[in-house]
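discrete fold record:
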Amino acid sequence: MTKQLITKSLFNHLLYLFIALISFETVANNNNNNNNNRIAITVDGNSAPDFAHKWPTGDPDDIGATPATLAIMAKLKLQNKLVHYSYNNFIDAPAGPAKDNQMKISAEGSIKRWNFDSTRFFDVTTALIKAKKQLAEEINKSTANDPLYIILGGLAEFLYLTVEEVVKNGNIDALSYVHVISHSGFNENHLRRKNHRTWNETLALSENRMKYIKIHDQNDCNNKNNLWCSKQDYSPYAWMKKHPDESVRWMYSRIVASGLADISDCGMLYYLLVNDKNGNPEKFQEFIGNSVL
């Protein structure tokens, strides 16, 4: 075999290997194996100032992200797959009056407009025990054929308390069929009280049974056309203002009510259900189309 043929053969072999590696990486990064499985979502916030912490209020992004997240499920007609939604999950934070509870307004408005089961929604500041018990019950049901996907849109302490409940009741094996999706190192590691626990401590409590899916941060706030945050620039969401669907116009009002053009937490569910970790308002507009329902 001539030197030229050897060189060409080696080049073709390396090219094939490169393409194979790229294809494997794409599958590994994009295939989350979700198949219309049960979904639980827990997000942060607090309905009244928490003066025991250096930041009395949480990031208001979930005020707008909650309707956006639930609109994604409703558009895909997956309302019955949402088995748990907890909000205001800052443990030990005080409860405030309902009329000023922006997360409650966003959650209840979404339930009403898109036909979700209200019994699966919990304000953690007023219903911690019920929320923890109900999510633990959903975890207990988990099997290889019926896994549970949890969107971690808030700090880890609430999930830690829930896993603690599961372990205490002797159902630790069910945690092997729980997948946790996160995009935020802050949510995984920040503690609002010294005795709270991180995501790594939660995973350790499950004896490393839970499956962890980390996608890149869904914020790129200095690039309004990329991902889901554009600070105070609402122009990427301007299409919502005069949308023919009242529920989309209402969703826009909730984004404005948050004080930020940031619905970044919805990017985790968009990834899970649409298999795209690089969503943005333009893609969201195409996804929603003429109506949510």
Summary: The longest helix spans residues 3-30. The chain is about 45% helix and 10% strand. Residues 132 and 162 are 5 Å apart (CA to CA). The chain has one domain: 35-288.
